[in-house]
Amino acid sequence: MHMRFMIASAVVFLGPTIGRIGPFIFGWSEILTQNVQYGIIYLILVSLIIYDKMNNKAFKPYLFALICFLIHQIVFYIVFL
User: Fold this and answer.
1) pLDDT of residue 23
2) Cβ-based neighbours of 76, under 8 Å, separated by 6 or more
3) Model's pTM, two decimal places?
């Protein structure tokens, strides 16, 4: 369980990384960069959830992180758009 929470918390570091690479290297807009960031994070978390469900492991830490990122994205779009 502890390992899964640590992996879920490490996903947070993808946001700033993609947020700096997207506009400066690829020339993406800020909104596109946010969408790519969320897409990659969701893909990773859903993949981990599916993997753990197939192997009968505890997937709730990933589900918790996914819900937190969904709330973060909703608040981002309400506040900034």
Assistant:
1) 93
2) 34
3) 0.89
